[in-house]
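Figure caption, in words: inputs first, then the predicted bound structure.
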Amino acid sequence: MALIVQKFGGTSVGDLDRIRHVADKIIATRAQGHQVVVVASAMAGETNRLLGLGQALSDNPSPREMDALAATGEQVSNALLAIALNDKGSPALSLQGWQLPVHTDDVFMKARIEHIETDRIRAELAAGKVVLVTGFQGVTPTGDITTLGRGGGDTSAVALAAAINADECQIFTDVDGVYTTDPRMVPEAHRLDSITFKEMLELASQGSKVLQTRSVEFAGKFRVPLRVLSTFKDGPGTLITFEQAAEHTTAAAPGRSAGMEAPLVSGIAFSRQEAQLTITNVPDEPGTAARLFGVLAAAHIESDMITQTPRADRRTDFSFTVARNEAGAARDLLLNRCSFLTGDAITLSSHVAKVSVVGVAMRTHPELATRLFEALAAERINLMAITSSESKVSVLIEERYLELAVRTLHTAFGLDQGAVGA
Ligand code: ADP
Ligand code: ASP
Ligand code: MG
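Bound structure (adenosine-5'-diphosphate present):
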């Protein structure tokens, strides 16, 4: 008997027929003798609908109330799934985040899980029930409801799997695994049988929304066996491993063999959720960057792709990206808090997107970055910023070229289905 956490995304519980189908899948797992804890997302489109209602009433709704609102989506789907399971003769019970509780910090709309109490889950499992836990939500030390950021159901599931020491965490979604890039954008993308935790972390953090980044972080930290599977099509899915998988595409450089040390490219990630802020003509002296980015960090706004370009006369320019939905707030904060900035010192560009080539040892194989630059240059796509890490190279481009860039790179790195090595 294994203990399995199964997470079902919004499309998987999108209507009553799908909820019945998910109930059958859970019952089939139970029939194999396993204990099952389920985390279901809100029904497809429901979180967007709820947040839209709040935004329709106010340009600046309270994050606390937006969380109280958004968390209801998961409450509905989990209760419906429990009703369906009970109706099919499988005893089930739904629990909300605050009922466990799932303790989080108090950063509304992107709260972090601190600790999960598991006594109730264990007791209900021991009583033979399927336990359904609302994903995406938790509770602050003072009892307020929080949510974990968009896509946070994945993180709830993996954190729960870690807390109850589950044998496997299965993320059921509307694709049958992790692909070399989003198969909805590139039909030639192919499914990976396995991917290392490190590469998955890079793909997710660069925008592949198949898993929320923090769910992968949790899996790595607590060594949770994690698998991405389809709700609608049986198959092995993609296993997230902690060792290098042998089956990855070998993207050997021209003139070099695809031997043991050949670089491995696992996929192309992209994000449309980017905006670029440019700050011009600020003092080029110690402390300027600390001030600018300190202000953003204190407001929990992440910045990325930072470049600094010195000008004459000990002045300098900075450019960096932030999440598009935080760009306006970031600009206002900087203007309010940094006295050395004047209104025309900050410009904001929202029509940008980020594309990343992800693979192990990207940095130690400079020919891969060159291949990326040459492929995009051949399509006349201009690069506005470049960053690299051990396992990725990212470029910022105009959003209108995003699809072309992703397809071009997928082909250039030999990832198209049917290509040699794919
Ligand atoms: P869920 O509602 O089940 O959480 P999501 O929409 O959050 O589902 O994530 C699944 C989607 O992720 C897929 O439908 C696909 O469009 C997208 N996606 C992006 N990158 C990838 C990738 N590399 N592999 C698979 N799916 C991807
Ligand atoms: N329902 C939430 C969202 O749409 C969480 C999730 O689905 O993972 O972002
Ligand atoms: Mg998701």
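The radius of gyration is 23 Å.
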